[in-house]
Specification:
By secondary structure, the chain is α/β, with parallel strands linked by helices. The chain is about 40% helix and about 15% strand. The chain has helices at about 25-40, 50-60, 90-95, 100-105, 125-135, 145-155, 155-160, 165-170, 205-215, 230-240, 265-270, 290-305, 325, 340-345, 355-365, 380-390, 405-415, 415-435, 440-454; strands spanning about 15-20, 45-50, 70-75, 115-120, 140, 220-225, 245, 275-280, 305-310, 330-335, 350-355, 370, 395. A seven-stranded parallel sheet has the order 3-2-1-4-5-6-7, sandwiched between helices. A six-stranded parallel sheet has the order 10-9-8-11-12-13, with helices on both faces. Bound molecules: 2-acetamido-2-deoxy-beta-D-glucopyranose. 2-acetamido-2-deoxy-beta-D-glucopyranose binds next to helix 2. It comes from Tetracentron sinense. One of its GO terms (molecular function) is quercetin 7-O-glucosyltransferase activity. Pfam families: UDPGT.
Length: about 450
């Protein structure tokens, strides 16, 4: 884009941003867009997401940037809708309402001919077609790791090599994905569901499949990761995409004010010994089955490990009878915790996590080893990276939490030599990520290229 003249508003760059309004997707996109908006005050950014997600991200406060504004799109939830208890239901309703909901909202805000770039969550591949129709660049953001993006990019190849469905994968779960550059440490079982196993024809799986096919058409693909973490995959995706730009990790860029500590987690941690507390948080949408959370509670109680547990109010009922009373003083259960600050607190010694990408990065940021209990999507790939490649955490045998497995994991990380080694490994990883976002670091340099591509 040429440098534009401020007086000539018709040529002033206007970037529309389309968010996928679930879990940590909109917050990650917002973090990047905020950074871009701060670096390019002459560019207008119009951020489109649902009212619910915009309310959470932008809140009531002024975001302090005149050139970044949020606009609401409809969420597709019919009036009088009765929630079935399936979190996926909201995603499906949203997907049915899309792309029309974005188009209507965009029409009300900016004339099509004034749009100079379309940014979006990578999931929303149709934003790429929209940009092509407008003859402007499409710049999607992948909010997770490079290896999980690579699995989506290579979905057609993976399906050709393995087939789809239970018959195709039975007995082959432990085969390595060594036919994809940089993926030989991952196994078939680590893949996201919907690629070869699980429902490969669901609207969601189809969306991700299309996404993988669309990426080479993007002017640039931004990724919330660091080139040096997966050099082979970086080289490969750089050949496949027009501009493959690792610009993360966002958790290392303190662009946003700290979350308020409404439940007193940090002051409670202040009273605990260094690296002694288990922090438990399985993310905002899905959680392991109740019997596994009971096993976790029993392991914590038996081992006498102090813990901070972020557990939604409606799930508190699954805890064993009398657990809260018996662990009073050494355990704290809250409905929400300021995770970044909690993990950065010196008292936290281990993180029991589903291995969402942001959680993993935040754990590295806080130099806290992990006990991994992947749930879905890219969780298994991330968990494999954590336990087998980076060696900064342990998994649960068979992928499920048992009392014995959890006690073993807690002992190993909190009191054994192996835990010390993991802390050393995580320190090295922390340094690598810190360098990438520092001056002249790879992520900082990629950010400059991204800025130019708008
Ligand atoms: C969008 O939704 C948020 C949260 O409900 C609300 O605060 C805001 O006023 C809405 N914005 C517009 C332009 O309607």
């Amino acid at each position: 884009m040429p440098i534009t003249n401020k007086e000539n508003s018709s040529t002033k760059p206007h970037v529309i941003v389309l968010a996928f309004p679930f879990s940590s997707h909109p917050a990650s996109l917002h973090t990047l867009v905020r950074k871009l908006a701060a670096a390019a005050p002459d560019v207008t950014f119009s951020f489109f997401s649902t009212a619910k997600s915009n309310g959470l991200i932008f809140g009531s406060e002024d975001n302090g940037l005149d050139n970044l504004k949020a606009y609401n799109v409809t969420d597709g939830v019919p009036p009088n809708y009765v929630f079935t208890g399936r979190p996926e239901a909201f995603i499906e309703l949203f997907m049915k309402a899309t792309l029309g909901n974005f188009k209507r909202a965009i029409d009300g805000v900016v004339e099509e001919k004034k749009i100079t770039c379309v940014m979006s969550d990578t999931f929303l591949w149709f934003a790429g077609e929209m940009a092509e129709e407008m003859k402007v660049p499409w710049v999607p953001l992948w909010i997770a790791g490079q290896f999980s993006l690579s699995a989506h990019f290579y979905t057609d190849l993976i399906r050709r090599m393995i087939g789809t469905g239970p018959d195709a994968t039975a007995g082959r779960e432990d085969e390595p994905l060594n036919f994809i550059p940089g993926m030989s440490r991952f196994r078939i079982r680590d893949l996201q569901e919907g690629i070869v196993f699980g429902d490969v024809d669901s609207p969601f799986s189809n969306m991700l499949h299309r996404m993988g096919q669309m990426l080479p058409r993007a002017a640039a693909v931004a990724i919330n990761s660091v080139e040096e973490l997966n050099p082979t995959i970086t080289d490969d995706l750089k050949k496949k995409f027009q501009n493959c730009l690792n610009v993360g990790p966002f958790s290392f860029m303190s662009a946003l004010p700290s979350d308020p500590d409404v439940n007193g987690c940090l002051s409670w941690l202040d009273g605990q010994k260094a690296a002694s507390v288990a922090y438990i948080g399985f993310g905002t949408v899905f959680s392991p089955p109740p019997q596994e959370q009971v096993a976790l509670a029993e392991a914590l109680e038996t081992r006498g490990v102090p813990f901070l547990w972020s557990l939604k109010e409606n799930l508190k009922g699954i805890l064993p009878d009398g657990f809260l009373e018996r662990t009073k003083g050494r355990g704290k259960v809250v409905s929400w915790a300021p995770q970044v600050q909690v993990l950065a607190h010196t008292a936290v010694g281990v993180f029991v996590t589903h291995c969402g990408w942001n959680s993993v990065l935040e754990s590295v940021m806080g130099r806290v080893p992990m006990i991994c209990r992947p749930i879905m999507a890219d969780n298994r790939l991330n968990g494999r990276m954590v336990t087998e490649v980076w060696e900064i955490g342990v998994g649960m045998e068979g992928g499920v939490i048992t009392i014995d497995g959890m006690m073993r994991g807690l002992d190993l990380i909190l009191s054994e030599e192996k835990g010390k080694k993991m802390r050393g490994n995580i320190g090295a990883l922390h340094e690598l990520m810190g360098k990438a976002v520092g001056a002249q670091g790879s992520s900082s340099e990629n950010f400059k290229i991204l800025l130019e591509s708008l």
